[in-house]
Design a protein that fits this description.
The chain is mainly α.
Length: 146
């Protein structure tokens, strides 16, 4: 069975290249064994020390490594500006439609997406939250059934 070893080595090389390039705001998913993950983690530590990025998150259930590079410095500012613009526009439309009670209920959303929250839950081994507890795949299996 040399194919899985060859594939693991190929994915390792691909991940190592991604780590050394370290372009901002990138994300890579690769399927590697836990041994390859540990080797990549050690190599990342050699290259970057204790820097927070690139960040390696390994999900042993799926033998999947997710590598995230540093966010762009503009990302938070642009996201905040865009969010405030959308909130302002929605507020105006609701006021024009004589729905002030709805306009008052508009709140800013947090920075976490459902996908990010699922990754956090799996990494921490915590139970799914109300926002993430029912994620179905094409076979009607919830995240809890997998």
């Amino acid at each position: 069975m040399p194919a899985p070893v060859d594939n693991d080595q190929g994915e390792y090389s691909r991940a190592l290249h991604f780590i050394t390039e370290n372009e901002p705001e990138q994300r890579l998913h690769v399927q590697v064994s836990q041994e390859m993950y540990l080797a990549l983690q050690e190599r990342t530590r050699e290259l970057y020390g204790d820097a927070p990025y690139p960040r390696l998150d390994y999900f042993p259930t799926y033998s999947t490594l997710v590598i995230k590079t540093q966010p762009s410095p503009l990302a938070p500012a642009m996201g905040s500006f865009l969010q405030q613009s959308i909130i302002g526009s929605a507020h105006e439309v609701l006021i024009q439609q004589n729905r002030p009670e709805l306009a008052e209920r508009i709140v800013s959303a947090g920075e976490f997406s459902v996908g990010h929250r699922l990754e956090e839950d799996q990494r921490e081994g915590s139970a799914p939250t109300a926002a993430t507890e029912r994620v179905d795949d094409d076979n009607n299996n919830s995240a809890d059934d997998r």
